């Protein structure tokens, strides 16, 4: 059974909830450099496909 982490300091947790509340809001973030990252991921994917089709053997 996996052990779950718990918050160890109850007083600190109460102070945080009293200041910030218990509700969660939505955060909207603009992605930067998405084209560069997508290009890199495509290149890595293409390299993986080439490696999977390779007949090269070591040993």
Give an overview in words:
The chain has 59 residues and is mainly α. Helix content is 53%, strand content 0%. It contains two helices and no strands. It has helices spanning 10-20, 34-53. The chain is elongated. The mean pLDDT is 86.
Using brief descriptors, characterize the structure shown.
single chain; 59 residues
What's the helix and strand layout?
Elements: H1 10-20, H2 34-53
- Low-confidence parts lasting 5 or more residues at pLDDT below 50? none
Average pLDDT metric: 86
| Estimated helix fraction | 40-55%
**Structural class label:** mainly alpha
- Beta percentage is under 5%
Characterize the main sheet: none
- Whole-number radius of gyration? 24 Å
Helix and strand succession? HH
Number of strands: 0
Structure summary:
The protein has 59 residues and is mostly helical.
């Amino acid at each position: 059974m996996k052990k779950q982490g718990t918050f160890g300091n109850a007083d600190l947790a109460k102070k945080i909830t009293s200041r910030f509340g218990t509700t969660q809001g939505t955060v909207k973030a603009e992605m930067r450099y998405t084209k560069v990252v997508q290009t890199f991921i495509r290149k890595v994917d293409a390299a993986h496909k080439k490696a999977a089709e390779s007949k090269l053997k070591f040993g």
